[in-house]
Amino acid sequence: MPKKRYSAFALLREAARYHSGWARAWASPQPKPRYDVVIVGAGGHGLATAYYLGKNHGITNVAVIEKGWLGGGNTGRNTTIIRSNYLQDPSAAIYEKARALYETLSQELNMNVMFSPRGVIMLAQTEHELRGYRRTAHANALQGVSTEFIGPERVKELVPIISLDGPRYPVLGGLWQARGGTARHDAVAWGYARACSAMGMDIIQNCEVTGIRARGGQVAGVDTTRGAIDCGRLGLVVAGHSGVLAGMAGFRLPIESVALQALVSEPIKPCMDVVVMANTVHGYMSQSDKGEMVIGGGADGYNSYTQRGSFHHVEETVRALIETFPIISRLKMLRQWGGIVDMTGDRSPIISKTPLGGCFINCGWGTGGFKAIPGSGWAMAEMMAKGEPGPLAAAFGLERFREGRFIDESVAAGVAH
Amino acid sequence: MLLLTCPCCGAEADETELQPGGAAHLTRVGPGAPDEAFESYLFHRENPRGVHIERWRHAHGCGKWFHAARCTRTLEVFGTYPAQITAPPQPIRDAIAAKHPGWAWKEGK
Ligand SMILES: Cc1cc2nc3c(=O)[nH]c(=O)nc-3n(C[C@H](O)[C@H](O)[C@H](O)COP(=O)(O)OP(=O)(O)OC[C@H]3O[C@@H](n4cnc5c(N)ncnc54)[C@H](O)[C@@H]3O)c2cc1C
Ligand SMILES: [Zn+2]
Q1: Which end of chain A has fewer beta carbons closer than 10 Å to its terminal beta carbon, N or C?
Q2: Are A188 and A194 contacting, i.e. CB atoms less than 8 angstroms apart?
Q3: What sign does the dihedral B13-B14-B17-B21 (CA atoms) show?
Q4: What is the CATH number of the domain that holds A290?
Q5: Is residue A104 part of a domain?
Q6: How many Cβ pairs within 8 Å bridge chains A and B?
């Protein structure tokens, strides 16, 4: 499908003719009988994988198959925090790659993804956290990720609405990543989808994969609600539904799916221009361009596929945040929703070959994979094109659980983010 | 809000009173078992979109562990039973099968 460029000139032109000339952003094709590569899941990670398969490796006979609408999973349900201040080296490498790609993603995709590097603070509200974040700041310095441990005065300077002195959770300092921030989640999915469609790839929505066909230990294709589709290689990129797809392919995963929630308030005047995460109290907050306070909370402790979480988590999050931000105590909450996140034991993702030949999986991003979309797609595409994981993906293989080589981010990422 | 009846003290407890304990009836492996067996026991989970047999603790009540059978898609509860039993008892299996024809208990995960 020919792609018309978005530009200031295009806006002016369309303004002058009642916006009658905008083309569809992506095509809505019928599935073909066969593709070189089929990706299951049109979330950010699946679409980015397809995009970099085309862009970096010249593979464009690709279909991305989505059971709902593209970006309707966790990609369209998250609180859009982007940061790369992780503790372990493999994490720092892939999250920093992603953050760096976000900086120029709007130009790259010719779609305004509204990346806003407004800065992210992770508050230290216990002695334990204080030491943990100091350690992370040192680790980040060695990894070449620019972060800084800051004291309470600097926190107050950056976030005037914060209450520093408790009573239960005094702010002792914070880990500050000035180049972290937020982006528009839908636009990230739409931008990749539009670019994939322009390369001739098929994005097939409302099409659920119901089975995976194999021949002699090699993947042969998928069964879908819109018929069978053959493929040479298969990528499973379905976040919370990874266990279901792995079941179809005949293997098990070190993953459990739980509900994670977020909520937004009524819009108010600009009052906070950075992202603040308070991990001790399981809450984090930023202000959207519309003025809503965007609040993320804790995950349920039990397996769930319901895309709505337990109410008491909302209560806990809001109760704790009010102590840290007294100004929000009278805000009305407008909307609340949930997504199904795929949790691994070490809180790190899986980018891996699988026991089924030609079948690759990208999952386990859990509560924090929006920030990773460009880097993850880059690494997954490299693995799918070459058949072996490249340097970014290598540490994230499934075998790490058997071999005891965890990438333990449960400290750095002890909370949803 | 999830409500489970504790089979030990009989109280109907809501989830704020309970501590989730993950998938139930895992076959524990011992010293000398191969790495694959440890990997499976420690990490691999069925994670079904549907019937899930799991462990819970009545943490802010009698303190005892117990089992529950639940649907992860609808949050329907099929019943609870004591912790000492190593597989779902027949009445629980019947309650599940009534809603999920074809569902069968698989031993030794
Ligand atoms: C409330 C909440 C807040 C979050 N906040 C943040 C944050 O601030 N920062 C951050 O970095 N991350 C955050 N995350 C995590 C982030 O949203 C996810 O890690 C990321 O979006 C995962 O993207 P994905 O493409 O892997 O999955 P998804 O976007 O979920 O895409 C998977 C797709 O697969 C499709 N699918 C499933 N089964 C099938 C099938 N059988 N056939 C066809 N298609 C199928 C689904 O419909 C879905 O569209 C948050 C998550 C939630 C829920
Ligand atoms: Zn009890």
Answers
A1: N
A2: no
A3: positive
A4: 3.30.9.10
A5: no
A6: 71
d(CA A104, CA A131): 34
Q: Which two tokens stand for residue A111?
A: 């779609």
Q: What's the ipTM?
A: 0.94
**Domain annotation covers residue A247:** no
pLDDT of A416: 47
Question: In DSSP terms, which residues pair with A263 in a beta bridge?
Answer: A295, A336
Residue with tokens 């680790």: A139
Question: Which tokens in the block code for residue A242?
Answer: 């990874």
Residue A310 within any structural domain of the chain: yes
- List C-alpha distances in Å: A29 to A34, A133, A203: 13, 49, 7
Residue A353 to residue A90: CA distance in whole angstroms:
17
Mind listing the pLDDT tens digit for each residue in A18-76?
999 999 999 999 999 999 999 999 999 999 999 999 999 999 999 999 999 999 999 99
Could you tell me the two tokens for A174?
């914070």
> From ligand 1's centre to the CA of A226, what distance in Å?
23
Ion ligand 2: residue ranges with CB closer than 5 A: B 6, 8-9, 58, 61-62
Query: Using one digit for the tens of pLDDT, what is the confidence trace for A274-330?
Result: 999 998 888 899 999 999 999 998 889 999 999 888 989 899 899 889 999 999 999
Adjacency order of strands within the sheet including A173-177:
A148-150, A173-177, A120-124, A275-278, A283-287, A292-299, A255-267, A333-344
* Residue A339 placed within a domain: yes
CB A362 within 8 Å of CB A45: yes
Task: Determine which helix (DSSP H) or strand (DSSP E) holds A45, and give its type and residue range.
Answer: helix A44-57
Q: In the structure encoding, which two tokens stand for residue A11, read together?
A: 């806006």
Number of domain units in chain A: 1
Residue type (1 letter), A164: L
Dist CA A32 CA A266 (whole Å): 45
Q: How far apart are the C-alpha atoms of A102 and A372, rounded to whole Å? A: 9
**Per-chain mean pLDDT for chain A:** 95
Q: Which DSSP letter does residue A414 get? A: -
Residues of A within 8 A of B66 (CB-CB) are none
Q: Which domains does chain B have, with CATH numbers?
A: 3-99 (3.30.2270.10)
Q: Cis (ω within 30 of 0) for the bond into A374?
A: no
Closest ligand 1 atom number to CA of residue A363 = 26
Residues contacting residue A173 through CB under 8 Å, at least 6 positions apart: A123, A124, A130, A133, A149, A150, A151, A152, A155
Both tokens of A218, joined, read 């090699």
In single-letter form, the type of residue at position A169 comes to Y
Contact A198, A1 (CB under 8 A): yes
Whole-structure pTM value: 0.96
Domain around A129? 117-180+256-343
